[in-house]
């Protein structure tokens, strides 16, 4: 089995707050706050509730700000600094933005956090979306397979000093071998417990297998958020993860 950073199994689930309103998100947080490892705020909720809601949640809980920054280097670097000012635990950029963008983000973020005495959030890079596959990449002019592109971008992110990557569970062990850094985080969406469906995800895996392959954090939304008993669903997922440890 691959070597991964030591992380408490009961804190490895990041609950995706992919909902329409701050009130709905607050309800989910109240239900799961004692056992969720973190909460993910993505494009839908961020657009609906804004940065002040991010600040509110981050004041009491770990927040993964999943906005997948992808723009010119200066713009992404400044957005990263604003994420740090909101107090988030982790945020992401698109690795396909290239090395100049990622290097400038790491440099500017480090400098701003030192100057303003902010806790530096983890900066991770998106490789290939779990809703994409090799055919999707070919449509956009990328001739590599999905796995080959993931590994290429993971190496690039590591070389640029990012803390980790977002990767499908199907590529976790390959990323771990390719990067060769046991402290490099792998955050895994596309995780579907045995009791859930795949929805629109194409490259998926169960929590048990993802954890065994070497994923550090599992991002899970619908199987928890849409469950009749959310806490029970989260606990069932923890049971799967613990079976892999």
Give a verbal description of the structure:
The protein has about 240 residues and is α/β, with parallel strands linked by helices. The chain has one domain: Aldolase class I (TIM Barrel), CATH 3.20.20.70. About 45% of the residues lie in helices and about 15% in strands. It has helices at about 20-30, 45-50, 50-60, 75-85, 100-115, 135-140, 145-160, 170-180, 205-215, 220-225, 230-245; strands at about 15, 40, 65-70, 90-95, 120-125, 165, 185-190, 215-220. It has an eight-stranded parallel β-barrel with strand order 1-2-3-4-5-6-7-8, surrounded by seven helices. α4 links the parallel β3 (about 65-70) and β4 (about 90-95). α7 (about 145-160) packs parallel to α8. The protein is globular, with a radius of gyration of 17 Å. It starts with 12 loop residues before the first strand and ends with a helix. The model is unreliable at about 1-5 (pLDDT under 50).
- Secondary-structure element order, N to C: EHEHHEHEHEHHEHEHEHH
Structural class by SSE content? alpha/beta
CATH topology: TIM Barrel
The helix count comes to 11
Strand content: 15-25%
CATH architecture: Alpha-Beta Barrel
In CATH terms, the superfamily is: Aldolase class I
Tell me the name of the CATH class.
Alpha Beta
In angstroms, what is the radius of gyration?
17 Å
- What topology, given as strand order, has the largest sheet? 1-2-3-4-5-6-7-8
Mean pLDDT: 89
Task: Note the overall shape.
Answer: globular
Number-wise, the strands total: 8
The biggest beta sheet, please?
Answer: 8 strands, parallel, barrel
**N-to-C span:** 10 Å
Helix content: 40-55%
Number of domains: 1
Return residue spans where pLDDT drops below 50 for at least 5 consecutive residues: 1-6
């Amino acid at each position: 089995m691959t070597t991964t950073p030591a992380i408490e199994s009961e804190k490895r689930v990041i609950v995706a707050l992919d909902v329409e309103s701050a009130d709905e998100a607050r309800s989910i947080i109240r239900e799961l706050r004692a056992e969720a490892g973190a909460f993910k705020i993505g494009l839908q909720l961020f657009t609906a509730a804004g940065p002040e809601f991010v600040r509110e949640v981050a004041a009491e809980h770990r927040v993964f700000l999943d906005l997948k920054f992808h723009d010119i280097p200066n713009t992404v670097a400044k957005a990263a600094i604003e994420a740090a000012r909101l107090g988030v635990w982790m945020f992401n950029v698109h690795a396909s933005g290239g090395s100049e963008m990622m290097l400038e983000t790491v440099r500017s973020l480090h400098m701003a956090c030192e100057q303003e005495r902010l806790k530096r959030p983890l900066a991770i890079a998106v490789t290939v979306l779990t809703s994409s596959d090799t055919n999707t990449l070919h449509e956009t002019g990328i001739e590599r397979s999905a796995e080959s592109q993931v590994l290429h971008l993971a190496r690039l992110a590591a070389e640029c000093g990012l803390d980790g990557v977002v990767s499908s569970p199907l590529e976790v062990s390959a990323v771990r071998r390719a990067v060769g850094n046991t402290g490099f985080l792998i955050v895994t969406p596309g995780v579907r417990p045995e009791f859930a469906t795949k929805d629109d995800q194409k490259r998926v895996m169960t929590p048990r297998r993802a954890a065994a392959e070497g994923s550090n954090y599992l991002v899970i939304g619908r199987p928890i958020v849409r469950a009749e008993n959310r806490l029970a669903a989260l606990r069932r997922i923890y049971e799967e993860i613990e079976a892999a440890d």
